[in-house]
Design brief:
With about 120 residues, this protein is of the alpha+beta class. It is built from four helices and four strands. α2 runs antiparallel to α3. About 10% of the residues are buried.
């Protein structure tokens, strides 16, 4: 009886996971939130205040990144969870994972490293 109960609970959790896998939009929103934080932090580091030109520059950068995510962000569905990747340097770079309706992105340092790497790759192209 105990084994049957355990099996039923595992199956219920698996069904719940399949029904709550985040979609591409949720991944993109989570990435954009993290990227906006990065852009704001980078602007502060460079000594740019909250002026009109700075805000326009941030909007342009965020819009460009959002457009790039629309075309380059790939969602890989594994039924119980999913991941997103972007193709850089000849391989797919993992950016986020989603399960139970939540999207987990890299921390700021990893995001910063990946974005700076993407900037240098695009400059070479």
């Amino acid at each position: 009886m105990k084994k049957l109960l355990t099996l039923v609970i595992i199956l219920l959790v698996a069904v719940l996971m399949t029904q709550t896998v985040p979609d591409k939009k949720a991944h993109k929103e989570a990435m954009m939130k993290a990227i906006k934080e990065y852009v704001d932090e980078k602007a502060e580091e460079q000594g740019f205040g909250g002026g009109i030109l700075t805000n326009i520059g941030k909007a342009v950068v965020n819009t460009g990144i959002e457009l790039a995510l629309d075309t380059k962000l790939k969602v890989h569905n594994y039924y119980l969870f999913n991941t997103t990747t972007v193709h850089m340097d000849g391989k797919d770079q993992l950016l986020s994972a989603g399960l139970f309706g939540k999207v987990f992105t890299f921390d700021k340092d990893m995001l910063k490293e990946r974005l700076e790497k993407a900037e240098t790759v695009e400059q070479k192209d």
